[in-house]
Structure formats: structure tokens, C-alpha cells
């Protein structure tokens, strides 16, 4: 398997965690999102992923895109250890938590949206950070409520084993810190982060551990 | 089953299509997103969904949120007719198409983001529409390329039966028209739309057919 990735891309980070949790080995093909105007925008990369986004996963000659679709693919193909429980309602709660990050937070504070906000609305870096903070705060506050409310409270977002929800949460916390969010409002989330980062699968997927890290 | 919904919410529209395709009957609990400052922001609704977003589905005493998690729940619980194929890579392609809409397009042109752009960046309605158009165009262009490139070209986004991808695409086209996008650039998508809307499951889920339509 070959992963088109960028060390600081939180969507790439999700897939790296999932690959590690499943114990799968893979080759990294780094796509630098800031160098040369963005390597993801080249014709060569667009031929791999017309969305011009990372990550993309090449496996058995197929190219798969969108990090959650890739993680679900790994779950379908390599079911152990599971990243989702069997019960449909429990599974929906976890997928819902993952989507709070993957839909309501991450895309709105993604690099291309921040660049657009900055250029089109003539915003300073500080104002761009406030935009990012606003959406991250809304999402993390809602997610923390969902975690506390669910019936299987444990060390992770849902129960005592990492799931798709943790895979989305941990990379988002890196972005939250980069944009200056006050994470002390989310003690439950910070506890979960400690438990996740104690696992090599999470620790080894961190941006600073990647071969393309700067 | 009880669906907390708003007729014009495209995320609610996705779930209505899925419920119809599965032949499931359900009760509608309308949450008006513009009336009284937004009924989704009331304490009563936040107790149901702390994200303050529609839709939410109540089933067997559980509340499920996030439209894609709800559709996957319906797929897990009522597998026929299937909305996803069995092959993991095919499934990932379809989920990837759905996520292009659900992550990269819809949240960035969602009501609360448009309101924030308008108020914080002092934009006119026309400028807000340009923001929405920009992200919708990026997404639809990428999605059309993905549809054309995939191996099972047929009447729908993937093959000859509707899937999760079509469920996300059709509601997004309503938004695209509302914000003034030129859809003639997407002939493949417009063909798929005709095939979808010829099915009662899609036609009956349309905003104007809902009991809370204005």
C-alpha cells in the first residue's frame, strides 16, 4: 500500500493512525501542500486525486480518497482490531462523533479555506486564526457533550478501545493548538488524548515523526 | 422512527431519501432553522442534539446524529436494498464521492457558515453567494471527474442503482441552484440527477414535498 500524505495534514494523520492500529505496513509518498504553490495542485497529483487533496491510498491498483472512506476500507478489509463496534446504534454514535470533526470542523479550517478567507476577505493572520478557532470550538464543545452523554464512557471517545472517533479527534487537537484554541475547556477530551498518545499507533502517526516532517 | 428535520436542510434531505429507498416509514419532527432565531439553537433541541444541527434520528430510544452516520445506520440495520456494494474498494469509491459533498462542499456553504461570513466579514448577499458557489464548483468538478473515472459507469454515480453517493449529490444540487451555480458544466451530474428524480424515493424526499415546506 502507498499513502500519498503530508506530515501536517490532519486527514493524512487519521489514515496513518488507522494503518498503525491495524498493524499494516505502507509506503509514504509525500505531497508538500505549501512547497511550489502546493504539490497537490500539480497535474501529476490531480491525475491521482482530482480533488487535489491528501491523503490518497493506492492499494491493489485502486486509488482511494477521502480519509474516512479510506479508514472504513481498512476496517472492511482488515477487521481486526476493530475500529467500530458491531451494534448499529453504537456504530452510528461513533461515526457521528467522527463526522463532527470530519464535516463540521476540519474542512472549514482546512488550508485552502483559510487561504481563501485571508485573500478574499483581506483578513490578517490573527483574524484567520479566529475563524479557525470559532469552528474548532463549536465542534469540540459538541463532541465533548456527545462523549459524556454516551452510555459506554471509558478511556476513549467510546468505551475502552480506540475507534474511528479517536482517529479523527487526535489530529484535530494539533490543529486546535496551532490556531490558538484554549483546550482547557475540554478536560474530557484532553484525558482521551493522553490515553491515545500512550499507544504507539497514535504516537508514531504524529506529524513530527513522519519522514517528510520539517 | 422519528426524524428531526427541516424541509430545506440538505443533510435532512439525504436521510429522507435513504429512508424512502429502504421503504421505512417515519414520523417527522420539523425544526425550523430560520424561525425565532433558529429552533435548532433552543435548549430543548440541544438536549436532543448538542451540535444544534439537523437531522437527528430517534430509533429504539437512541438519538443518532450526522446524516452520513444515520444513513450508514439504516444500511447496517436494513441492508436491502443496499446503498453500498460488497467490494471494499468499490465501497470506498462511493463513500469517497459522498464525502466530497459531505465534507468538502456542504459544511462550507452551510447556513451557519454563510451567516458568519456575512456578519464577520461584512459581505453582501451576492458576495456570500460567490463564496458558496466557489466551494460547490470545486466539489462538483472533482465529483464529476471521479464519476467519469470509475470503472462501473452507469445511470447513477456508481453503476445502475442509487447509492450513498447519489443520496449526497441530489440535495447538494438544490443548494447549487439556490446560490446561482452554473450547472451546465456538469452534464454527467445532470444526467444522474434525472435518473434519481425519476425514482419516487428521491422525488418524495424533495424539500417542496415535505409537510414543513413553505
Search tags:
Glutaredoxin, 214 residues, 9 helices, alpha+beta, 52% helix, 4 strands, 4-stranded mixed sheet, Glutathione S-transferase Yfyf (Class Pi), Chain A, domain 2, homodimer
Characterize this entry briefly.
By secondary structure, chain A is of the alpha+beta class.
Provide the spatial order of strands within the biggest beta sheet of chain A: 2-1-3-4
Number of helices of chain A: 9
Termini gap of chain A: 24 Å
Principal-axis shape of chain A: globular
Residue windows where pLDDT falls under 50 for at least 5 positions of chain A: none
- Oligomeric state, counting identical vs distinct chains: homodimer
The CATH topology of the largest domain in chain A is what?
A: Glutathione S-transferase Yfyf (Class Pi), Chain A, domain 2
Number of domains of chain A: 2
Estimate what percentage of residues of chain A fall within beta strands: 5-15%
Rg of chain A, rounded, reads: 17 Å
Please state the average pLDDT score of chain A.
Answer: 96
Give an overview in words.
Chain A has helices at residues 10-21, 43-48, 67-77, 88-105, 111-120, 125-149, 164-178, 187-197, 200-203, and strands at 2-5, 27-30, 56-59, 62-65. Chain A has a 4-stranded mixed beta sheet, covered by helices on one side. The first copy, chain A, has 9 helices and 4 strands; from the N terminus they run βαβαββααααααα. Chain A has 214 residues and is of the alpha+beta class. In chain A, helix 1 (10-21) runs parallel beside helix 3 (67-77). The first copy, chain A, has 2 domains: 2-79, Glutaredoxin (3-Layer(aba) Sandwich), CATH 3.40.30.10; 88-201, Glutathione S-transferase Yfyf (Class Pi), Chain A, domain 2 (Up-down Bundle), CATH 1.20.1050. At the A-B interface, strand 4, helix 3, helix 4, helix 5 and helix 6 of A face strand 4, helix 3, helix 4, helix 5 and helix 6 of B.
Amino acid at each position: 500500500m502507498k499513502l500519498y500524505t503530508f506530515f501536517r495534514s490532519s486527514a493524512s494523520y487519521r489514515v496513518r493512525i488507522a494503518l498503525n492500529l491495524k498493524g499494516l505496513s505502507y509506503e509514504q509518498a509525500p505531497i508538500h501542500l505549501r512547497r511550489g504553490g502546493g504539490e497537490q495542485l500539480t497535474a501529476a497529483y490531480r491525475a491521482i486525486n482530482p480533488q487535489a487533496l491528501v491523503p490518497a491510498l493506492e492499494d491493489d491498483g485502486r486509488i482511494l480518497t477521502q480519509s474516512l472512506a479510506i479508514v472504513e476500507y481498512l476496517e472492511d478489509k482488515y477487521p481486526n482490531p476493530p475500529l467500530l463496534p458491531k451494534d448499529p446504534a453504537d456504530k452510528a454514535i461513533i461515526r457521528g462523533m467522527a463526522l463532527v470533526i470530519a464535516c463540521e470542523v476540519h474542512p472549514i479550517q482546512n488550508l485552502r479555506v483559510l487561504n481563501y478567507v485571508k485573500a478574499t476577505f483581506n483578513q490578517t493572520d490573527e483574524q484567520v486564526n479566529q475563524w479557525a478557532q470559532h469552528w474548532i470550538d463549536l465542534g469540540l464543545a459538541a463532541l465533548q457533550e456527545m462523549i459524556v452523554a454516551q452510555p459506554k464512557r471509558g478511556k476513549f471517545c467510546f468505551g475502552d478501545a480506540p475507534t474511528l472517533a479517536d482517529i479523527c479527534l487526535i489530529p484535530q487537537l494539533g490543529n486546535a493548538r496551532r490556531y490558538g484554541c484554549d483546550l482547557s475547556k475540554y478536560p474530557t477530551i484532553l484525558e482521551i488524548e493522553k490515553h491515545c498518545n500512550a499507544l504507539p499507533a497514535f504516537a508514531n502517526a504524529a506529524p513530527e515523526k513522519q519522514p517528510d516532517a520539517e
